[in-house]
Design goal:
With about 350 residues, the protein is an alpha+beta fold. It has a single domain (about 5-355), classed as 4-Layer Sandwich (Chorismate synthase, AroC fold). The protein has nine helices and 19 strands. The strands form six sheets. A five-stranded antiparallel β-sheet has the order 1-2-3-7-4. A hairpin with a 2-residue loop joins strand 15 (about 285) and strand 16. Helix 7 (about 230-240) packs antiparallel against helix 9.
Amino acid sequence: MKANSFGRRLTMTCAGESHGHSYTVIIDGVPAKIPLKTADFTDSMQRRAPGQSDFTTSRKETDEVQITSGVFEGLTTGAPVCLVIANKDQRSQDYKNLKEIYRPGHGDYVYQQKYQHRDYRGGGRSSARETVCRVAAAVIAQKILQKTKIEVIAFTQQIGPYQSQLSYQEKLCLKTKQIDQSAIRCPDNQVEKLMQDYIKELKAQGDSCGGICQIIAKNVPLGLGEPIFAKLKSDLSAALMSLPAVMGISFGKGFDCVTMKGSEFNDQQVIIDDQVSFLTNHHGGLMAGISSGQPLLINLAVKPPSSIALEQKAINLSGKTEIIKIEGRHDPCLLPRIAPVAQSMVEFVLADHYLLRSPGFN
């Protein structure tokens, strides 16, 4: 199995399975003399952790991070930093009946055909639990970004038919602590309850739902990214589309651009107090693949979780159709937990591009 690494100047390499002993992530390209200790990971890991509310899986994991290399006397040494996160609450017996069945919506069938062998427990390598590696790696990215004013937030914009009505300016004022006050990470009090009731209703029916996660990166400096194969937009897309359940991505006005005229879509510029200013941000902070100095605005389409309790048709290893019901502990909606993971991936990409532009970081 290839392609378990990501990044250009700052890279992460991940390993592990949902029901294996642990997950491991190695971050290379970390500058020396960055303060780093185990406690630095606690808040970020808890934001992603399962079992936070009725809207997430009930699996309980402490997600404590162990630093095994790259740090001496509380500072990074410039060597690769290795982080290990143990799995402590596996219930592999919940998956025994799925050993010879390809679950609808999962990667079981393509894994078996490609590798001729697969870990059927909780999805193995393809489990969303793999995202613990992304969040842990992003803690180091956050420390790199402390040298800048960059701030990234991510929140639930839509669940099923219910959308946040907060304005663009209201969203720019949001803080992570405010977003985390909501069990589903929707900062719009007017629609949050409707979203929660919708999730609960589908969960009671044994079903699940999807939605849109919105990410905003503020104070991104002008000039990150290159115009062809190292576009900031391309790297952000690769990072975010690598997340489980993400089915689509858009920037700024996104697909709404198809109904707009050029005169409407173009972000016109004016001079205010001797500074260049944009009248709009339809491009989402990116022009020709390069950051414009405006906030990055990204939308992710997230599919409904595939593991549902309703009866579904599935194919077994013998090529016969069976009727199955998925048991175990699963999220009825991924939006509450994907927000911190998406935020982490954007932070990692921005830290990577910042280091590419600032080789003399140390």
